[in-house]
Design goal:
Blueprint lengths: L11 H12 L2 H4 L2 H4 L6 E6 L5 H16 L3 E2 L3 E2 L4 H13 L4 E5 L7 H10 L3 E4 L10 E5 L1 H15 L4 E7 L5 H17 L3 E7 L4 H12 L6 E4 L2 H14 L13 E6 L2 H9 L4 E4 L2 H17 L6 E2 L5 E5 L2 E6 L2 E3 L10 H4 L2
Parallel strand pairs: 1-2, 1-3, 1-4, 4-5, 5-6, 6-14, 7-8, 7-9, 9-10, 10-11
Antiparallel strand pairs: 11-15, 12-13, 13-14
Length: 348
């Protein structure tokens, strides 16, 4: 089992750039390609969705970092949650003669034909956050989602006193974040908090489905704790639902449900400050941006990597036949919620 995530502060100038780019409208995120140096290699970006704060900030961050590295990032494509459309988007990028492609896959299996098309065209393929389960991926850049699930479990179990019933709202197991966070959470609960009962519901990373699943359980079962596998997708709906049930109460007040989440969006950090969330595990979005540019440049130079420690405090591991750079994430509580390096604070 991977150790619990720990934070790694980054330089403030980098954070300021992230704060600016998060606020940019997505329509403008790639517009620098129009006025960029025509001799700079073009890079394509295939996004699965652009409909939540984390994904929007992630895409904008990668675009800015790649552009700052001296390359030309084309405007990101948006598959709007459709795996078939994402394959089409990648094919379109290949036809535009891009020299590398960065992608956030909708589905780890469904993205394989897109990876293979890029391989056939000799275009390096880099994934961010979600891995591909096949094809030749140059590098998958992500946090250790098993470790994040474990960290969420440790925070939740301790806050709940190791007893009671927890509602786990997880993402689809067809995605690496979905299956890995669920695995990390459940393995930790079984090992460290065996007295807690888990009720698990698949949300499909869909906000409306999240509310439906939670409401069904809350209407019939007394719940003591909730684990949100993505606060970016799930927190707004769950907050509204609990408010309607008079169960949205801060720590120390009657009716409080111990709640822990993963992602680190601005609303989630506000909820930690106010005591409604007991803790959150923040993704290293600034590092996703930085190392997306790093690995695009490395791919274009033909640099190769091996399993083992990286030169930037992470571990490179093998996953589904490809390499993955597992970047460190941060457990957020009231003690460190105002840390300027957290992407949710930069997003305000």
């Amino acid at each position: 089992m991977s150790p619990s995530p720990t934070g790694r502060p980054t330089a403030r100038p980098r954070l300021r750039r992230l704060a600016v780019l998060v606020a940019l409208p997505l329509a403008l995120a790639g517009c620098s390609a129009t006025g960029a140096d025509n001799s700079a290699p073009m890079v394509g970006f295939s996004a699965a969705v652009l409909d939540n704060p984390f994904t929007s900030a992630n895409v904008n961050g990668v675009v800015a970092a790649v552009d700052e590295s001296g390359l030309t990032m084309l405007p990101p494509t948006n598959a709007e949650g459709d795996s078939g459309q994402q394959i089409t988007d990648v094919s379109t990028l290949i036809s535009q003669n891009v020299k590398a492609i960065v992608a956030i896959p909708r589905d780890s299996d469904a993205i394989i034909p897109a990876v293979e098309a890029a391989n056939a065209a000799g275009v390096p393929f880099i994934t961010v956050d979600t891995a591909a389960n096949g094809g030749n991926v140059y590098m998958n850049i992500r946090a250790d989602n098993v470790a994040m699930g474990k960290a969420a479990c440790e925070q939740l179990g301790a806050a709940a006193g190791g007893t009671g019933t927890v509602l786990q709202l997880f993402g689809p197991v067809s995605t690496t974040p979905g299956i890995d966070r669920k695995t990390g959470f459940e393995q930790c609960m079984a090992a460290e908090f065996p007295g807690m009962e888990i009720i698990s519901k698949d949300t499909g990373w869909d906000a409306a489905k999240t509310v439906d699943q939670a409401q069904t359980v809350l209407n019939t079962t007394e719940i003591d704790a909730i684990f949100l596998a993505s606060d970016s997708v799930m927190l707004p709906g769950i907050q509204t639902l609990l408010q309607g049930l008079n169960r949205w109460a801060p720590q120390g007040e009657a009716g409080h449900i111990t709640t822990v989440a993963i992602d680190g969006s601005a609303p989630a950090l506000d909820a930690v400050r106010a005591g409604y969330l007991d803790a959150d595990v923040s993704q290293p979005l600034n590092l996703y941006a930085k190392y997306s540019a790093y690995y695009v440049q490395a791919a274009l130079k033909g640099t190769t990597f091996q399993v083992g420690p990286s030169d930037h405090d992470s571990q490179i591991v093998e996953y589904e036949g490809n390499l993955a750079d597992m970047l460190p994430s941060t457990v957020v509580t009231k003690k460190n919620v105002d840390d300027e390096t957290l992407w949710g604070n930069a997003a305000k």
